[in-house]
Amino acid sequence: MVDILHRVGVKTPTPEKVYEALTTVEGLAGWWTVDTKGDGGEAGGALQFRFPPVGGFDMEVVETRPGERVLWRVVDGPEEWVGTTVDWELHQSGEYTIVLFKHQGWREPVEFMHHCSTKWGSFLMSLKSLVETGEGTPAPRDVQISDWH
Amino acid sequence: MVDILHRVGVKTPTPEKVYEALTTVEGLAGWWTVDTKGDGGEAGGALQFRFPPVGGFDMEVVETRPGERVLWRVVDGPEEWVGTTVDWELHQSGEYTIVLFKHQGWREPVEFMHHCSTKWGSFLMSLKSLVETGEGTPAPRDVQISDWH
After folding, report:
1. To probe the interface with B, which of A6, A103, A104, A107 has the most B CB atoms within 10 Å?
2. Domains within chain B, CATH numbers bracketed
3. Is A2's CB within 8 Å of B3's CB?
4. Residue pairs spanning A and B at CB distance below 8 A
5. ipTM greater than 0.90, yes or no?
6. What angle do CA B89, B90, B93 make, to 5 degrees?
7. Which of A3, A52, A71, B2 is the most buried (most CB within 10 A)?
């Protein structure tokens, strides 16, 4: 089993704004994709992320602990993603909210997984920018990293 | 065992410029750290990368196949890095040179590994920018991703 791991630090006095950016449609639409729908605030909720024209991801919210953790399970999307989990752990370190990110449960380290790893890193920088400056780079104005977008 | 994986596509007609950026001191200094010394052109060579004031990495060049692959082994640096390998596979896909990156052999998925994963993604974007525009963002003007730089 292979995982995608990332760590960013968001300059903000408490984890509150990062947590909001992970649990509200407005927040998620500000850094991942503007085409976000659903309810990310509580366990049992469902979120739909779309990236026209190529598709997207449906997530089940598995756990939410305000300011500390958000956990999603992928219920629909590319077959490599279905059944994987996306785990966000937050803690405060001085002036920074630290985000420890894990996209776990990939069956094989396929080329698409390499792509998603780099793309997640780029979107985490978008999340950081959203909280620090009020402006992220969600799809469709996300940073292009390759021929696969 | 856990690996760091990434994939970027560099808009360039052949892998030649990306290969140069991975095997020459001038190239490496243009996207990773300006403080690069050694000889990266052939197996058996040694490369020293420094990031003042925090240290750096010494690499042994294990394999070089022009336009196709570069493989390094970490011989000195942070203890989590020593003995790991950094593998660069290149292939052409239309207008893009695809870089498949693997930093393998980490013993544990420690917090520092999460950081290095995001940081590698950011440096791969610097490599892409260097080849596409002539300008990368090597240390010390690298993109800050957190309190750990």
Report:
1. A6
2. 2-133 (3.30.530.20)
3. yes
4. 99
5. yes
6. 140
7. A3
Name B90's bridge partners.
B99
Global pTM reads 0.97
Mutate which: A3, A7, A90, A91, vs B, most B CBs within 10 A: A7
Taking the C-alpha atoms of residue B53 and residue A47, their distance in angstroms, rounded to an integer, is 44
Nearest chain B CA: its distance from A9 CA (Å): 4
- Kind plus residue range of the DSSP H or E element containing A62: strand A56-65
* Residue B70 backbone zone (phi > 0: left; psi -120 to 50: alpha; other: beta): beta
Question: How far apart are the CA of B29 and the nearest CA of chain A, in angstroms?
Answer: 21
Please report which confidence band the pLDDT of residue B1 belongs to, taking 50, 70 and 90 as the band edges: low
Q: Do A148 and B118 touch (CB under 8 A)?
A: no
The predicted-structure confidence for A85-126, as pLDDT tens digits, reads as follows: 999 999 999 999 999 999 999 999 999 999 999 999 999 999
What are the start-end ranges of the E strands in B12-144?
Answer: 35-38, 46-50, 56-65, 69-76, 85-93, 96-106
pLDDT of residue A1: 62
